[in-house]
C-alpha cells in the first residue's frame, strides 16, 4: 500500500473516532439512562484513537486538517438530521447515534485486520488484534 493511501486510510479512521467521541459526549450530556455504558464505550474509543495516533506517528503520518474539517461538517449535518427527525423524545436520535457508533467500532476492527493483512508491520498490528483493542474485545455495543 502506498504511503499516500495509508495516510488517507488512517486519517479517515481517525476522524471517524473523533465523530464517535463527539456523539458519545452528546449522549452522555443528555442523560439517557445508559450514561455509564456510554462512558465505557467512549473510554474504549479514546484508547483506540490514542493507539491509532501512535501508529501514525511511528509511520511518519500527520493528521489531515482537511479530513478534520470534513469530519466536523459531517458531524454537524448528522446532529441536525437526527434532531429534525426526532424532535420529541430523542429515542430515534439515541438509536441512530448508537448505530453509528457500533458501525464505527466494527469499522475500526476492520481497520486493524486490513492493515495487518496489507502491511509490512503485520506483527505489530497482529499483536493489537490478538490482544484486542478495547473495541475489538467488546465486538459490539452492549447497552
Protein model, in words:
The chain is mainly alpha-helical. The chain has one domain (3-138): Ferritin. Helix content is 81%, strand content 0%. It contains six helices and no strands. Helix 1 (3-30) runs antiparallel to helix 2 (35-58), helix 1 (3-30) runs antiparallel to helix 4 (91-118) and helix 4 packs across helix 5. The longest helix has 28 residues, at 3-30. The model is unreliable at 139-143 (pLDDT under 50).
Characteristic terms for this protein:
143 residues; mainly alpha; Ferritin; 6 helices; elongated; disordered C terminus
Q: How would you summarize this macromolecular structure in one to three sentences?
A:
By secondary structure, the protein is mainly alpha-helical.
Strand percentage: under 5%
What fraction, in percent, of the residue positions are helical?
over 70%
According to DSSP, the number of beta strands is 0
State Rg. Answer: 16 Å
Major sheet, described briefly?
A: none
- In DSSP terms (H or I, runs of 4 or more residues), the helix count works out at 6
Shape: elongated
Would you list the SSEs in sequence order as H and E? HHHHHH
> What is the name of the CATH architecture?
Up-down Bundle
Amino acid at each position: 500500500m502506498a504511503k499516500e493511501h495509508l495516510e488517507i486510510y488512517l486519517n479517515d479512521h481517525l476522524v471517524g473516532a473523533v465523530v464517535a467521541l463527539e456523539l458519545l459526549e452528546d449522549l452522555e450530556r443528555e442523560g439517557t439512562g445508559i450514561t455509564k455504558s456510554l462512558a465505557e464505550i467512549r473510554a474504549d474509543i479514546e484508547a483506540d484513537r490514542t493507539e491509532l495516533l501512535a501508529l501514525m506517528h511511528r509511520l511518519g503520518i500527520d493528521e489531515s486538517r482537511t479530513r478534520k474539517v470534513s469530519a466536523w461538517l459531517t458531524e454537524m449535518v448528522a446532529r441536525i438530521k437526527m434532531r429534525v427527525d426526532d424532535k420529541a423524545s430523542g429515542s430515534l436520535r439515541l438509536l441512530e447515534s448508537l448505530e453509528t457508533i457500533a458501525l464505527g467500532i466494527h469499522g475500526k476492527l476492520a481497520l486493524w485486520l486490513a492493515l495487518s493483512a496489507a502491511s509490512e508491520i503485520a506483527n505489530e498490528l497482529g499483536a493489537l488484534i490478538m490482544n484486542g483493542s478495547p473495541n475489538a474485545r467488546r465486538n459490539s455495543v452492549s447497552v
